[in-house]
Amino acid sequence: MPIGFVITEWTEDQGLAVKHKYPETQEVDLDDMMRIFYAHITGAGEAGNVVVRLEKTKSNVSSYFTGMESDIPLMINLMLELDEEPEMFGETVIQEMNEAILSYLKQSGAGISQKYEIVKELNSYLKNSLFLLDRLKNLTKEQRMVQIYSSEKGRKILEVLQDKAVSRKELKAILEEKLNKTISNIEITLDPFIKTGLVKQDWVEGDIDISLFLLSDFTVFRTPTVKLIENTKTHLPTPELATKYLEEVRKFFSNYKPTFEDNLKLALNMLNPDRYDYISLFRERAYPLKKIPKGPGESLEEIGEILKPMEKDNIISFIKNNKGDVWVFLLTDIEAHMFYPEYLIEKIRRDRMLGKLKKEVAIKHLELLEEAYKK
Asked: Which 3-state string (H, E, C) describes 93-152?
């Protein structure tokens, strides 16, 4: 499980100092913090992310730096176990956490330690963030696919493999060139591709590195919620609500056109464990807002905070009955649809005829695609 957060600030008179940490029992080695700081400022000292392995404290650190040009340069350090990598959780998730943490720090004014309520809220947010990150280590198959979709790196890997099979070494070089980033652990990067069955790693005779073959492709889009549509045929949950719900669904899908921006919203909602739990719940039936199943110690207000962005993204809809009671319906379901990449067969043959692809690689890929088709 992720260890905690250490937030540091740099000032000319005091140098690097710890501004906040969670949990409070977290031990901080300033020498380690300086090592991370130097990793950031080597070069232009611009805002950005680095990953640093700390042997002394036995942790990996995903660190975000606001840059030397900011009023007070800050580092937000997510402390991970040595066997954990930031990519396990998704770059977008950690980026959103960093942005939220910065918003708390901006409210703190001159000294966060003097702002009791803000510190309390920040600690609550950091605690929940660690819990969320731990849950992200156990994703479902459809969540792993949207994790790929939500990541620039994941989309680039898919784009490369949609073109042809490549070795791990080749893929690493392509990614570093295209994204202008160092890829420290290609195995972790490929993990969701392997676990979902999208990609198979295999050896090609004569090669010294393992090759990567795309065996399935996928896309993300909205669909009507099948179970809820079926329920309306028997006037569930009530004739009035069934009619109102069908009207909203028809209205939405009559104007629906999938776009990358919208699909990315869907992916991020699916990747959030709390929102995903509610999507799964509402796939089966609608619920009165006041009777939604709650987790231990969870309040209706906390549930509302989870549901609000889902309503904004047109994933759920709040519908009132004639008594004024609010019901929650899944307006649009989200599907990560896997399909057989038939387009690759002709492309492999054409590339082989043009000499763009080694014979052994072409044969291996066609054999693997044939096996995948038969399953």
From this structure: HHHHHHHHHHHHHHHCCCCHHHCHHHHHHHHHHHHHHHHHHHHCCCCCHHHHHHHHHHCH
Fold of the CATH domain 219-336: Arc Repressor Mutant, subunit A (1.10.10)
The mean pLDDT value of the chain amounts to 93
Angstrom distance (rounded) from CA 228 to CA 226: 6
Cis link prior to 23 (omega < 30° from 0)?
A: yes
> Which amino acid is residue 226, in one-letter code?
V
Residue 111 pLDDT level (bands cut at 50, 70, 90): low
Between the alpha carbon of residue 180 and those of residues 162, 275, 321, the distances in Å are 21, 32, 54
Token reading at 295:
């987790």
| Assigned CATH for 141-216+340-374 | 1.10.10.10
At residue 183 the predicted structure's pLDDT band, cuts being 50, 70 and 90, is confident
Is there a common fold for 4-135 and 219-336?
Answer: no
